[in-house]
Design a protein that fits this description.
This protein has 16 helices and eleven strands. It has 326 residues and is of the alpha/beta class. It folds into two domains: 214 residues, TIM Barrel (Alpha-Beta Barrel), CATH 3.20.20.70; 86 residues, no CATH class. The longest helix has 22 residues.
């Protein structure tokens, strides 16, 4: 059995699985592996580094991949969006800001638009902007997000933007999560953290190992890591990451961290980035969602796509048998 949904039809994919465009993590190799396994892989355009984006687009080779952008950052670098459209991506993914100006340009270029949302109002705005697919991101997700949970947000978004395909995101790590999303009315899933813990993902091996060893109870939503990176994210978005020594030192002392960054020559920012490069997971950032309880090994992304799809099919078949006549 193959899971055919409105998402597989809209994007021309075999499995209703999309890998999240995680900034600095979702490069060309990961996106290509997911696509070649039957899902849709997305490169993370992230914070707008043109050289990085061009390099990772090349790394994807001839695979049919898409690219994602942090919309509020893209507003300052609109030429990056034009560059992406010139590559005729499988889709563009817009999140954390008004998608309307960029969605219109993508539609003119014939490129499908995926918009990630965190509230019902965001969902309705995305539909009005011309989204082809809407991603309902729950607060369980790693990286930046909002306050609503996937279980409550996804079906509400399904009802709000019908008949557009809706993708559930946040805390989904295996086939049971995909099956659950489909029963909520979603047409597929967007998975981030689980694909971070793959061989093809960028990022230090220590960070991937930390995702394997940590649990969902170890994650926090916070501003601390963005302050340390000097990335002024707008309200209401905060990052979910694995709790560590850096967080414990500065949680509740965010103003003091800002003052120390501003007032000292030996800036915590430099130390933070040095720790990130060296793989010191206690003094830097490991973004991860609440679904990491189910992340038990660093695996090839293609094998992960196949297993999630197969496990979802078995789970749905089991559920169907519960209502079968005796």
């Amino acid at each position: 059995m193959t899971l055919k949904t409105a998402l597989t039809e809209a994007l021309g994919i075999t499995h209703p699985i999309v890998s999240a465009p995680m900034a600095t993590v979702a490069g060309g190799a990961l996106a290509a592996a997911v696509t070649e396994a039957g899902g849709l892989g997305l490169i993370g355009g992230g914070y707008g580094d043109r050289d990085w984006i061009e390099r990772e687009l090349r790394a994807a080779g001839n695979a049919r991949v898409g690219i994602g952008f942090i919309t509020w950052r893209l507003a300052d670098r609109p030429e990056l969006f034009d560059m992406a459209l010139e590559r005729a991506p499988a889709a563009v993914f817009l999140s954390f800001g008004d998608p309307a100006p960029f969605a219109a340009r993508a539609k003119e270029a014939g490129v499908p638009v995926i918009c990630q949302v965190q509230t019902l109002e965001h969902a309705r705005s995305a539909a009005r902007a011309g989204a082809d697919v809407v991603v309902a991101q729950g607060t369980e997700a790693g990286g930046h997000g909002g306050a609503r949970t996937t279980m409550t947000l996804a079906p509400a978004v399904v009802d709000a933007v019908a008949p557009l395909p809706v993708v559930a995101a946040g805390g989904i790590s295996d086939g049971r999560g995909l099956a659950a999303a489909l029963t909520l009315g979603a047409a597929g899933v967007l998975i981030g953290t689980r694909f971070f813990a793959t061989r093809e993902a960028l990022g230090h091996g220590n960070a991937k190992a930390r995702l394997v060893s940590a649990g969902g109870d170890d994650t926090v939503r916070t501003d601390v890591f963005d302050i340390a990176r000097e990335l002024p994210w707008p309200e209401p978005y905060r990052i979910r990451a694995v709790r560590n020594r850096f967080f414990d030192r500065w949680n509740g002392a965010e103003d003091a961290l800002r003052e120390e960054i501003a007032d000292t020559t030996d800036s915590p920012v430099d130390a933070f980035h040095a720790a990130l490069r060296s793989g010191d997971t206690e003094e830097s950032l490991v973004a991860g969602g609440q679904g990491i309880d189910l992340v038990r090994a660093v695996e090839p992304a293609g094998e992960l796509v196949a297993r999630i799809a197969a496990d979802a099919e078995r789970t749905l078949a089991t559920c169907a048998s519960l209502s079968a006549s005796p």
